Amino acid sequence: MTIKGCMFDFSGTLLRIESAASWLRATLAEAGIAVREAESAAYARRLARSGGQPGGPPPEVMPPHLEQLWRERDRSAAQHRAAYTALAREAELPWEELYDQLYDRHMAPAAWTPYPDAAEVLGELRRRGIAVAVVSNIGWDLRPVFREHGLDRFVDVFVLSFEHGVQKPEPGIFRIACEGLGLPPEQVAMVGDDRHADAGAAALGCPVHLVDHLPVERRPDALWPVLGLLDEQVI
């Protein structure tokens, strides 16, 4: 059966979050806090190790009291904020007021950069009449990010975990997206960077294409092979 639709993950697939250093610098500037560059860089490394930056690296060490909250963080906006601000606190910054401000910063469109081939590939899918959904484990509305970067015009359906109380790899979230596109799962490919969460779509019979979660400058064209799936037959 010919592929007629594509689901895409958000973070690490279509767009990439800024570095922890940039994230912290921007938040400090917004808060009016002056810090020497070397000191800021050291705190940024601690934040990166803590896993407190949404879209950034996972925690190097998961505090036992946060394990359940981490597993269910994408089911609601409150859980998402609670999980990431708690992990950021593990970095022990000297500014208690900064944790919520850091969380707010990561939702800003300026904190995200599209991968170099994202607009071109999405545009080509639109030209070919392929329906597109964005399916994301997330705790906030990413639609403004897509609008700011001019990508929203290529997306037919947004399925965000916190809006449905279900998260990848659970089949239900992919089923919601397929139903939103008006297509059976076997006609919808899933494109993502998480070999656990995104590959969950395979349970519904969706073909899965995985890309590497790399900085934008190191991944210029990983989305183009998605177009090859359009001509493949699903048995």
From TrEMBL:
Keywords: Hydrolase. InterPro entries: HAD-like_sf, HAD-SF_hydro_IA, HAD_sf. It comes from the Bacteria. The keyword Lyase does not apply. GO terms for molecular function: hydrolase activity. This is HAD family hydrolase.
